[in-house]
Amino acid sequence: MENQELIYYPILDLVREKAQQREKKIQEDLGKTLKITDNIDEANAFLVGWGDGFMLDAMKKYYDFTKTPEENKLFFGVNCGTLGFLLNDIHELDKIPKTREEIDIVKWYIMQVEILKKDTQKEIKYAINDVVVGGNVLDYFKFFINGKTIKEEFYGTGVMVSTALGSSAYWLNNWGPLMSSGSDVRWVSGIAALPFRPRGMRPEQITIKIKGRSPAMVGVDGYQGKVDDIEELTITPTVHYTNVAFLKDEHFNTKRMLLSQQKILGEDI
Q1: Arch. (CATH architecture) of 7-108+241-265
Q2: What is the pTM of this model?
Q3: In terms of CATH architecture, what is 110-239?
């Protein structure tokens, strides 16, 4: 029978003072009630502390593609930032779960992004949230999207391909649908694009080619995954997904809908 006890390997943003304080708290206090290890091989879960972007980076850095999703460690995030769509709001650190029985798990699917640059160099990146290709608001490109069920040519400033997880930001910023986080459905939309009908689609490989007077760029899960001067990219679904843990009383889909509502209304969050 699988071990129900959680053994954490901490991943903290030690650049910020608040994260340093959390690190000290974890080392001094939590070791008395939680299983904390500095040996990554002993752990069965990652304890991630800061914000949403840091959480995404940690998942991609520590996910092991040589193993199956279930062989990989869980990710449990503690919100030390602002919104915390992807994290748990825990103000008393002794509330961090000690066993699997205290958590629910959400699957976050991973897309492979192969990028071809103008100088013919290639880069491989992985997206959990979204892929955005184009330029700034003054740039205008012609896009060619080609896949099994989608073939489109259109003009616009950008294209966004979102996972179900990434649809939180998608819905807020581009008015796409808010999809159930455990789904493997993708959403494809043009940004200031005409003519193009946004649509949902099952996972499939798609290629996006770009033509324009100015250099195009792609952001894979935001600016941390930015690549400049690109010619085309191929987005391929993978069999991989991260298992992200949430407290049983903190339903992830309900939480992100409420946070989205608060942000739209400009309420203090």
Answers
A1: 3-Layer(aba) Sandwich (3.40)
A2: 0.85
A3: Sandwich (2.60)
